[in-house]
Design a protein that fits this description.
metal ion binding; binds protoporphyrin IX containing FE; Heme oxygenase HmuO; Haem_Oase-like_multi-hlx; globular; mainly alpha
Length: about 250
């Protein structure tokens, strides 16, 4: 694992290298494996989106509350906010009274509580949670969008607002923005100790996400055949962020 030292590589690179194993575990949850294989049905998907709604509501409220913080202010990009997008998707999947139909699962509550706790004790660590969610949504999430649309045969313009970023409609614009985001990470005023804590917190953020996804495994199982379930649960995919060459902006930073 990348351990920041006084000769520390850029923080964005430390975060990527320091979370490779966690990323691989997240990709190997059954929910993710089913999604990338186009095997998802609406029930587990809408429950997952409901969980994400609670998580993003908390994350984005706390990022907003700490927008003047010396670390958070530099990594606060309101254009990335997902709460409203998730509200649109939940209205599509649950109907107009979606708010009365959803409630946070046990692991979702734990995730949300962690966000409020660090916002209270050490707000700089919110940067790790923002990194894990937003960079994921802008990366592998984009491939999942297409899989969801075709698996559920979604009507034009509905059901995947979560993966749509205003002003970032193409792979090129998203790639460029990820460069901007990594530059912002690299310029955060963090010392070695805080950098180490951020990597630890990013790994915890991945774990909290995995826990939420694991809770949905039985829902997923109910929607696929036994043979598919066997195949999916025994498949071990290599992590997408392992062995990636450093992006150009990380080399030149
Ligand atoms: C099927 C599931 C997934 C696939 C196929 C996938 C794929 C990828 C790929 C290919 C990249 C590299 C993009 C690039 O360098 O431009 C990436 C980056 C990333 N993903 Fe995922 N991902 C998945 C799930 C997740 C999940 C569930 C999370 C978070 C909970 C996540 C968080 C991230 C983050 C934070 C990065 C940025 C790594 C960096 O610092 O460069 N991913 N993902």
């Amino acid at each position: 694992m990348c351990a920041p030292t006084s000769m520390c590589p850029p923080l964005a690179l430390c975060l990527r290298e320091g979370t490779q194993q966690s990323h691989s575990l997240a990709e190997n949850t059954v929910l993710m494996k089913c999604l990338r294989n186009g095997l998802i049905s609406a029930e587990p998907l809408r429950q997952w989106m409901a969980s994400l709604y609670f998580v993003y509501s908390a994350l984005e409220l706390e990022m907003y509350n700490h927008a003047d913080h010396p670390v958070i202010g530099r990594i606060y990009f309101p254009r990335l906010e997902r709460t409203l997008q998730l509200e649109n998707d939940l209205a599509f999947y649950y109907g107009d009274n979606w708010r009365r139909q959803i409630q946070p699962s046990r692991k979702t509550i734990r995730y949300v509580m962690r966000l409020h706790a660090i916002a209270n004790d050490q707000p700089a660590l919110l940067a790790a949670h923002a990194y894990v969610r937003y960079m994921g949504d802008l990366s592998g999430g984009q491939g999942l969008r297409a899989k969801i649309r075709s698996a559920l045969k979604l009507p034009e313009g509905l059901g995947t607002a979560f993966y749509e970023f205003e002003g970032l409609p193409t792979a090129e614009t998203r790639r460029a923005f990820k460069g901007v985001y990594r530059d912002a990470l690299n310029q955060l005023p963090v010392d070695t100790q805080l950098a180490t804590q951020l990597i630890e917190e990013a790994n915890l953020a991945f774990k909290l996400n995995c826990d939420v996804m694991h809770e949905l495994a039985s829902q997923v199982k109910a929607t696929v055949s036994e043979a598919t379930w066997e195949l999916i649960t025994h498949e071990n995919l290599p992590g997408s962020t392992a062995h990636l060459p450093p992006p150009i902006e990380l080399v030149s930073a």
